[in-house]
Amino acid sequence: MLSIKNLNYTVNTEKGQLDILKDINLDIDSGKFIVITGPNGGGKTTLAKAIMGLVEATSGSIVYEGEELVGKSVTERARLGVSYGFQQPPRFKGMQVIDMLSIAAGKKLKNADCCEYLTKVGLCAEEYVNREIDTSLSGGEVKRIEIASILARNASLMIFDEPEAGIDLWSFAKLTETFENIHRNSDSTIIIISHQERIIRLADELILVSGGSVTKRGSVADVFPDIMDDTKIGCTLMEADK
Amino acid sequence: MSKKMTEIERNLLREIADLHKIPEGAYNIRKDGELDGRNSTANIEIVNKEDVPGIDIIIKPGTKNESVHIPVIITKTGHSEVVYNDFYIGDDADVLIVAGCGIHNSGCDTSQHDGIHTFHVGKNARVKYFEKHYGDGDGTGERIMNPKTVIHMEENSYIELDMAQIRGVDSTNRETVVDAAAGAEVVFMERLLTHDKQKAYSDMVINLNGEGAKTRVISRSVAQDDSEQIFRPIVNGNAPCFGHVQCDSIIMGHGKVSSVPAISANHVDAQLIHEAAIGRIAGDQLLKLMTLGLSAEEAEEKILTGFLK
Questions:
Q1: Which DSSP category does B169 fall into?
Q2: Using CB atoms, which residue from A52, A75, A92 is nearest to B294?
């Protein structure tokens, strides 16, 4: 169970304080597949980063499997089973894909193990195992390696921040299939921030974050039509789904 | 490797040449200025120089898939030497050469090795050359290594150099000069890590003299603590040729790095490129690895290991 209570995140700007997250309250049962959606700048990524510890909440509580995460480091949260796929993952000169996936898995992986993870994200595995994660890879390739690292991590809570961004249509189809399989075959909780209808349709529950708050929550069947009817948010989603 | 070797000496050999036992093929092990072991083969002859300290390594034309190991170790504090090693690599040969120097200094006097290596790479010959410098010991005496590498490349020859200094060397002045004839190719990888108050200076001049000559220079370095590094790789394109120089450095603590790559085209069809980047470890790199369960220190170590690999 992931339980978020009265979570706030405020930053100081030249114009004064800006509330990025406002009194977020969420309970997410273990094993659920949740999609968080909403307009750009609404607070989705900040919420995900707050769970991972990449931003430190101004106030509030985040309890995961009985452990308070607020105040814990990124490393401690990772060791408690939280993982996070970056929207714009960094590159590492000299570090090979097999090195990254081995770090994620916590053990030295064999080529065959790496190939399995890479295939799941639509990469022709043999070609990539020994490639360096540097500027020789395209943004889409780095993104897919990032997602593969989360699969290799196999954490109990997997958070993906817009996994579809920068990924071609063919790989995207493979990716949605992979998310579906993880959900079907493991006990991991999956939280995906996405604007893509095909990902949204996979979710057990859909959460709309807008203006720093949770404004809607429910089954896809209940919530999605409402979102699409909302002119501002619906346009954002339709644009993203093109 | 003689039976009289101590554990310290064996450790130095492991560090610089990955030697756990007597190497196969030709070898020459130099210890504290003296010969500790040597083996020539039917195709690779090692002989003493007559006029100066050092050896000539003569590789017959057409020699394939053979190797030469020529490690140097110094364990006597205050020992200082200048050694001249010349490599004559015959036409069409294809060989591996493993050099390297390890200094263990547990005393208070400076120990120093200046190695001057000159390569004569014959037509169509291919050479892979590994050289690693390493220092340890708890003495206050400095560990200094000044390698000079001169390479004369004949037509269509190829040499790949992997030269590394990973920890323990207080001061180094590295000098490399390459003359490449038509069709010759040199690939140069230099990896340096300095820490504490160490200093490393690397000067390199690659002259692409013949049509179709190529070079790729990759320099990766890490300057930690109060250490200081200066790189000056220069590529001169004197013919229709291709050269690419890439210098990447990470600075940590109060480390200082100056990277001054230079390319000089003296022919209208010379294509030369240089890139240089210096910076600290990016915060998002650290965070990414921390999200995979590594501590900040472990993440830093992994990033540096990958960078210098």
A1: -
A2: A75
Alpha helices in B77-203 (DSSP H): none
How far apart CA B288 and CA B123 sit, in angstroms, is 48
CB contact under 8 A, A86 and B284: yes
B297–A contact, CB cutoff 8 A: no
Longest distance between any two alpha carbons in chain A, whole Å: 54
| Rounded CA separation B257/B250 (Å) | 8
Element (H, E) at B73: strand B72-74
Helix and strand numbers, DSSP H then E, in chain B:
3, 22
Kindly report the nearest CA distance between residue B137 and chain A, in angstroms. 30
**Strand A2-13 to A16-28 pairing:** antiparallel
Q: Strands B241-251, B214-223: parallel, antiparallel or unpaired by DSSP?
A: parallel
Nearest to B114 by CA among B87, B142, B81: B81
Distance CA A179, CA A199 (A): 9
Question: Are A75 and B306 in contact (CB < 8 Å)?
Answer: no
Strand ranges in B197-305 using DSSP code E only, listed in sequence order: 199-208, 214-223, 228-237, 241-251, 256-259, 262-265, 270-279
**pTM exceeds cut of 0.90:** no
Which of A215, A109, A193 lies closest to A154 in space, CA to CA?
A109
Kindly provide the ipTM of the predicted complex, given to two decimals. 0.92
Strand B94-98 to B126-136 pairing:
parallel
Reading the block at residue B39, the tokens are 């083996």
- Digit-by-digit pLDDT tens for chain A (242 residues) are 999 999 999 999 888 899 999 999 999 999 999 999 999 999 999 999 999 999 999 999 999 999 999 999 999 999 999 999 999 999 999 999 999 999 999 999 999 999 999 998 888 778 889 999 988 898 889 999 999 999 999 999 999 999 988 888 888 888 899 899 889 988 999 999 999 999 999 999 999 999 999 999 999 999 888 877 765 555 555 455 44
Q: Which structure tokens are listed for B293?
A: 């369960």
Q: What is the least distance, in Å, from the CA of B291 to any CA of chain A? A: 5
Q: How many angstroms separate the CA atoms of A52 and B53, rounded?
A: 61
Q: Is A174 helix (H, G, I), strand (E, B) or coil?
A: helix
Compute the nearest-CA separation of B189 from chain A (Å): 12
Integer Cα distance of B292 and A76 in angstroms: 10
Between chains, do A106 and B293 touch, taking CB under 8 Å as contact? yes
